[in-house]
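Summary of Year 1 activities. Much of the first year was spent building the evaluation harness for sequence design. The harness presents a backbone, in tokenized form, and records the residue chosen at every position. We chose the following record to illustrate the format because it has been used consistently in internal testing since the harness was completed.
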């Protein structure tokens, strides 16, 4: 495993913890959107917003994972 670039402000462990935390948040957001979908009283626009938030967080996970992969 290569050392992190000296310009990187985070250690390998810190970057891994950030990735784990964001991944967990993504999982919980997707789970919440799924449960929200099962409610009969939900409005379509509310469900669409929940799915959009989950998708945005998924993009963040992908970006952070790429950064970590490139640095390690």
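For this record, the design step produced the sequence shown next.
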């Amino acid at each position: 495993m290569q050392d992190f670039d000296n310009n990187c402000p985070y250690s390998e462990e810190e970057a891994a913890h950030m990735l784990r935390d964001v991944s967990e948040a993504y999982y919980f957001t997707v789970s919440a959107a799924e449960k929200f979908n099962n409610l009969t009283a939900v409005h379509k626009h509310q469900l669409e917003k929940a799915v959009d938030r989950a998708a945005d967080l998924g993009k963040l996970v992908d970006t952070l994972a790429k950064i970590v992969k490139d640095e390690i």
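The first helix runs from residue 12 to 38. Quantitative recovery figures across the full test set are reported in Table 2.
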